[in-house]
Amino acid sequence: MDELIIILVRGIGLGAVFSLVAMSFNVVHNASGILNFAQGNMLILGGLFGFFTLPQEPELVRWLLLVPAAALFYAAVLAVQGWVTLLPLRSSVEQHSWLITTLAVSVIIGAVILIAQGPFALSVKSPFPNFALLGTRTPTPYALAVVLAVAWYAALHWFHTRTVTGLAISAIAQDLEAAQAAGIRVRRLQILAFAISGAIVGSAGFVAAPVMSISADSGIIYVLNGFIAAVIGGLGSNAGALIGGPLVGVASMYAAFQYGGQYQNVVSLALLIGVLMVRPEGLFGRTRARRV
Amino acid sequence: MSNEKHVRRFVVHIGIAVAGMVAAVAMAQTPRPPIKVGAMIPLTGGGATVGESGQIAVELAVRNINAAGGIAGRQVQLVIGDYQTEATVGVGEAKRLIFQEKIELLVGPTYSQVTLAVLPIQNEAKIPSVNVSGSEKLTPEVGPYAFSMLANAEAQSKVMVDHAVRSMKVQSAAILSDTGAQAKTAVEAIKAELAARNVKLAGVQEYQYRQTDMTPQLLALRRGTPDVVLLFTSNGEDTGNMIKSMNELGWNVKVVGSFGATFSGPALKIAGKDAYKNTVAVNYKGFSFCPSEATPKSFQDFVASVKAFKPDAFERQPLAYLSLWYDAVYVLKAAVEGTGGKTDGPSVAAWLETNSRSFRGINSGLTASKSTHFLIGQDALTVVYPDRQREGGLLERVGC
Questions:
Q1: Disulfide-capable partner of B323 in A114, B22, B303, B362 (CB 3.0 to 4.6 Å)?
Q2: Is A211 on the interface with B (CB under 8 A)?
């Protein structure tokens, strides 16, 4: 039983990172219909921010100040990426050049990390000691990732329901053409959505860096599992992302524990197929009417 | 008149002789075409850490060989193929190197699953190669022109189990490995060796490359309460992550690692300075020392040349592994020169099967034959403390 609790706690922690990636997917997707496949490597860049700004033995105050700094920095980076991605598109719903653009950005980030930092994974230390759990020590960044995921969920919920800008983005998500006709400055809000997604993955990468593999080729693991979490939860639903991430994290860790490490990645995909077969819109997704 | 005729004939003969000499000199001075050597190295992907060592080694070897006159008088032109640690990419890169670049010799790949995938292409073109892979499936039948510098999985497995049984007196053992082809072969070899020595198998687990949290695997293995964990890994990062996870669980079991566990630089960074307090690993005897022994001059020279060649990357290089790639190029050079300059697979393979023992490189005492193309056998291996290093990465032998 103790072993299962350890797996559960670590699985939820790892899954919270996937949740954050899934939420960053949702924010951009809701506003533009784009799935930003560079989010995995953006998360790695968040970790890289920690590597460059934190000393070997980081102090708490500095770390606390750097969390919003990482969020703001990557908000700016993603805003630029969003602008470049959206530039050639009259409507992202009708054209699909974003697919190549976002993948290209991901490849470029990976290549730049490889050239600049070499092939070895970088280590970042946490200012928090590991916490005790049933005779074991569990890295605190797992718990921090959960806190951050809940915090971002709450912030996004407030933003989308209580602010004019957030409501306008929600309007775009419901009907892009109607929103345009109503005079909403769609392109500007879409770039803002990219920036918000950058703040999410930037802060997530920074906070979870000590339990992540920060290297040129690690982004794929996080973008894949983040995407699976988003689809399982229901693409566009942040509540779904919040639940979908830990589901993926716990399922993959349990599969490794019970059946062997070779099943760790397979089980995420099996979970995805299973959920889609029973509920194609995902656990928290909503079916939509489509104009034909 | 006859005198004039005699002089004319003499002039003609002299002219022919001079023309012949000029032609001979001209032919002698015509540069022979360079010999294209392909190197399949994982510069990106999960194996990029060991790929960096491979690239440094091969480039250094080619530079030194060219400075000394080339292979059989031909300068070496190196063509590198990055296969991204993926077998499918490897097949494409092998085709590019062989059919497009028209290489004559091949060094690499490392990672057995990639090597096994590209062998049919090599065989078709009869390209001789020296790889750095260790799966038992790399037999002379599967790769008649392919040889390996890596101690094969079976040899490493035997040394690991032998140490666990004889020195540590274990009664039960668990196996943890990565998901590579060599590791899968090794797991089977370890199981057979444990059974032969009546050691109880307490559990078997695998992990994906670059997995940071291995607690699920370790918790599963801990259920079997093994006396030792036999770790078959291919790099230091995975070793570090495994030890870090083990420390977090507070599990102080002894670990005997494969050669990959000796790549201590990344492991120490990840798991801290006490990472190896419970861990020993298999290494090449030539890269081990006892405190009372002096470091051989040839080895010192090799270390110095790597340091001078890539000073920025030197500190993180596992030099024993790097030397395998370095020697791989020199083994091919020796074989081509031994056959009088032939570069076809059958000639080079036949030479290596009978003459590899004569090779004198950083690693000597090679033992390939018609029945095995693994150049390094079990006798060339020992067990070391991975964190007790001399300059250049020599590791202290256990039991000095």
A1: B362
A2: yes
Kindly report the CATH number that applies to the domain delimited by B35-152+299-377.
Answer: 3.40.50.2300
Global pTM exceeds 0.90:
no
Measured in degrees and rounded to the nearest 5, phi and psi for residue B397 equal -70, 145
Rounded alpha-carbon distances, angstroms, from residue B372 to A100, B352, B376: 47, 11, 10
**Domains observed in chain A:** 2-278 (1.10.3470)
Distance from CA of A8 to the nearest CA of B (A): 10
Model confidence at A276: pLDDT above 60:
yes
State pLDDT tens for residues A53-98: 998 888 899 999 999 999 999 999 999 988 888 877 765 556 677 8
- As a residue count, chain B comes to 400
Minimum distance, in Å, between the CA of residue A174 and any CA atom of chain B: 39
Residue contact A257–B217, C-beta within 8 A: yes
Strands B254-257 and B279-284: parallel
Q: What is the DSSP letter of B70?
A: -
**What CATH class has B154-286+383-397?**
alpha beta
Q: 10-residue block means of pLDDT along chain B (400 residues)?
A: 62 63 56 92 86 95 97 97 93 97 96 93 97 89 95 89 94 94 90 95 93 94 96 91 92 94 86 87 88 83 92 86 94 97 97 94 87 88 90 85
ipTM > 0.95?
Answer: no
Q: For residue A178, what pLDDT band results from cuts at 50, 70 and 90?
A: confident
The Cβ of residue B266 has, within 10 Å, a number of other Cβ atoms equal to 21
* DSSP letters for B244-273: HHHHHHT---EEEE-GGGG-HHHHHHHH-T
Residues facing B110 on adjacent strands: B132
Query: Do the two domains B35-152+299-377 and B154-286+383-397 of this chain adopt the same fold?
Result: yes
Residue whose tokens read 């496949």: A37
Domain segments of chain B as ranges: 35-152+299-377, 154-286+383-397
Which residues on adjacent β-strands are paired with residue A131?
A138
Strands annotated E in B258-363 = 279-284, 288-289
- Which of B158, B203, B219, B211 is closest to B180 using CA atoms? B211
Q: Is B207–A256 a contact, with Cβ atoms under 8 angstroms apart? A: yes
* Strand, helix or coil for residue B79: strand
CA distances from B218 to A109, A149, B249 (A): 33, 28, 8
Chain A contact set for B213 (CB, 8 A): 10, 14, 211, 253
Torsion of the alpha carbons at B40, B41, B45 and B50, rounded to the nearest 10: 150
* Subunit contact A253:B213, Cβ cutoff 8 A: yes
With CB atoms and an 8 Å threshold, state whether A120 touches B316: yes
CA A15 to mean position of chain CA atoms: 10
Q: Do A44 and A219 form a contact (C-beta atoms < 8 A)? A: yes
Structure tokens at B285: 């005897």
What are the pLDDT digits (tens) for A119-138?
888 889 899 998 988 888 89
Alpha carbons within 13 A on the beta-carbon side of A219? 27
Q: Residue B49: list chain A partners with CB under 8 A.
A: 119-120
